[in-house]
Write a structure and sequence with these properties.
Layout (H helix, E strand, L loop, with lengths): L3 E5 L2 E4 L2 E4 L1 E5 L2 E6 L9 E4 L4 E4 L1 E7 L10 H11 L2 E6 L10 H14 L3 E7 L5 H9 L4 E5 L12 H14 L2 E5 L3 H13 L5 H7 L2 H18 L2 E4 L5 H12 L4 E5 L2 H4 L2 H7 L12 H12 L5 E2 L3 E2 L3 H5 L18 H12 L4 H15 L17 E11 L18 E11 L2 E6 L3 E3 L19
Helix pairs in contact: 2-3, 4-7, 5-6, 7-8, 8-11, 13-14
Length: 460
């Protein structure tokens, strides 16, 4: 029997809601949930009175870009932001040097993660119009999903041809993994950018105007069509439009295998923030008008949205500043891994009256299920990995870039006051981060575990 830890007095958060209970951990696993663990011997007792105890967050959309030269984030610094933000597992995207698009790349990326990561991690593979044999190599190496861009807006990721989309959808239908899509129409996007540039526009709003909602909505419509025709699972990345979510909702109702994520920037920021932030608010899809933001929240509330992920892109301050006078010069992407779940939890509980169960589903249980990590990840039921996060949902703090633990010290949420703070993060029974007034990292690089496809059903 391993080391026993008891978390006592807390409000335990599950998919169904929250209730007062104690949690017993033995070694790396959850051993029991009990109303009173006071008579259970323990090597460590953690007082969670007045706190919320939930499964560790599963962030299925991170860009640590490791290996990379020069490094912009990396598994180690990305892990630091993750554990301070209540995330215990990430599913890392294929952007790296080189782009992860064959078996050898996956082996290399896994080795780098196993050397540097604190958080447990699974891997995406990139579908970049290569031969299917290369995709099969990645599947054999244990990737949990494949990713394509429907628009060629990311270096190293050409727009997937319709032939690639059809072939990959057919392959994932056979294997049973999601096909993640950056859903923007390439022709509409390129034409929009060319039109704005021809007008001499370099201001932040030119970015948003070049990618109006229809650019995303059309691509989602096409992705759903391919999924419906093939039986392959479409996973719509970072959805920012109510129209796109309405298409997903209708597709689900008729049995199409489709899941959808959104991100904190599409829930907590809008076009006015893009005006204010300039290049530090440039991402794809762009920040939307306030009515779109409220529309996305409606589909969060009704259960259409399956996952909230960060799409964390740790670009340097210098690279972002290149867009101060010309928005097109700034790279696409925002930092968000450390702030995501505290901001979302605050909004859900204190601003919008949603319950803890909604938060647990979107941050942990649903992503773990979709990416074949459940029930080892995403839940506090006995037998699960002891990945636990404790929040003080009444503690206020102000977001400051200088306090971020990820590599590049900036955040689009600078100055935001948040009422929910991560006070302890536990991965497989080990405390890796705690904040009793002063943040302290106790996790070590190289302790993160690679999670191959199907990990959730594996037995030790």
């Amino acid at each position: 029997m391993g080391r026993r830890v008891v978390i006592e007095g807390g409000l335990l958060g599950t998919e169904e809601g929250a209730f007062r209970a104690d949690l017993v951990i033995e070694g790396e696993r959850i051993a029991a949930i009990t109303l009173d663990a006071s008579d259970i011997d323990a090597d460590e007792r953690i007082d969670a009175r007045g706190k919320l105890v939930v499964p560790g967050g599963v962030d299925v959309h991170t860009h640590f870009k490791d290996p990379g030269d020069p490094p912009t984030e990396g598994f180690y610094h990305g892990s630091l932001g993750a554990i301070a933000g209540g995330i215990t597992t990430v599913v890392e995207m294929p952007q790296a040097a080189p782009t992860s698009s064959e078996g050898a790349h996956i082996r290399q990326k896994r080795a780098v993660g196993e050397q540097h990561s604190i958080v447990d991690f699974a891997l995406w593979g990139g579908a970049v119009n290569q031969d299917l044999e290369k995709i099969d190599e990645m599947i054999d190496e244990g990737i949990v999903a494949l990713k394509s861009f429907m628009a060629g807006s990311s270096p190293g990721f050409p727009a997937a041809t319709d032939d690639t989309l059809l072939a990959v959808f057919r392959r994932v239908a056979e294997v049973g993994i999601p096909y993640g899509l950056h859903a923007e129409n390439d022709d509409l996007l390129e034409a929009g950018i060319a039109r704005l540039k021809a007008q001499g526009r370099k201001d932040p709003m030119a970015h948003a105007e070049s990618r109006p909602p229809i650019v995303e909505i059309e691509a989602i419509h096409r992705a759903i069509f391919f999924a419906e025709q093939t039986g392959g699972h479409a996973y719509i990345c970072h959805c920012s439009t109510a129209g796109g979510l309405e298409l997903v909702k209708a597709a689900k109702a008729r049995g199409v295998p489709v899941s959808v994520e959104t991100c904190p920037q599409y829930l907590a920021l809008d076009e006015e923030d893009l005006r204010r932030l300039g290049p530090f608010g440039r991402c794809a899809p762009p920040l939307r008008a306030r009515d779109e933001v409220e529309g996305v929240w409606r589909y969060v509330t009704d259960g259409t949205v399956d996952v909230i992920s960060s799409d964390h892109c740790g670009y340097t301050i210098e690279s972002k500043e290149a867009g101060l006078d010309d928005i097109w010069q700034a790279p696409l992407g925002l930092s968000g891994i450390q702030t995501m779940y505290p901001i979302v939890l605050d909004d859900m509980l204190h601003q919008r009256g949603l319950d803890v169960g909604t938060f647990v589903r979107l941050s942990a249980s649903n992503p773990a299920r979709i990416f074949s990590l459940y029930p080892r990840k995403g839940t506090l039921q006995p037998g699960a990995d002891a990945d636990v996060v404790i929040y003080d949902t009444e503690r206020e703090w102000t977001v400051r870039g200088e306090d971020m633990l990820h590599r590049n010290k900036w955040t689009p949420f600078e100055g935001r006051v948040v009422r929910s703070r991560v006070v302890r993060t536990i991965i497989r029974g080990r405390t890796v981060y705690q904040d009793d007034g002063a943040p302290m990292v106790t996790g070590e690089p190289g302790t993160g575990r690679f999670l191959p496809r199907g990990y959730g059903r594996m037995r030790d």
